[in-house]
Amino acid sequence: MEHSYDYMAGGGQGRKPGDHQIIMRGRKTLDITGVKQVESFDNEEFLLETDMGFLSVRGHHLQMKNLDVDKGNVSIQGKIDDLVYLDQQHGDKNKGLFGKLFK
């Protein structure tokens, strides 16, 4: 099941641009600030748009534990396997974000 949340719809008054941080506790809990939008998520992957680019969080039994739309904060719980920023590279101009995700 995939869901999408648009942080800008809430106005984002409590957020400052560029205020992006990640705090991981024992590969079980992840607190992320500076989230603009949750593009999609399920129990194995979250795709977040942050102030520093798109962030993919992959793992097992992932759940969203906290969502603060005004401040752009997301908390994820589960077994976290990896965090990857998906940057556009000059050689991949024809590939979109989802083309990179599903190689």
Folded structure, characterized:
The structure is a single chain. By secondary structure, this protein is mainly β. 5% of the residues lie in helices and 53% in strands. The protein has one helix and seven strands, in the order βββββββα. It has a seven-stranded antiparallel beta sheet with strand order 1-4-5-6-7-3-2. The longest helix is centred in the last third of the chain and has 5 residues, at 97-101. The chain is globular.
Q: Could you say which structural class the secondary elements and strand pairing correspond to?
A: mainly beta
User: How many individual β-strands?
Assistant: 7
Q: How much of the sequence is in beta strands?
A: over 45%
Number of helices: 1
* Estimated helix fraction: under 10%
Tell me the distance between the termini: 21 Å
Spatial arrangement of strands, main beta sheet: 1-4-5-6-7-3-2
Morphology: globular
Uncertain residue ranges: 1-13
Q: Helix-strand pattern, N to C?
A: EEEEEEEH
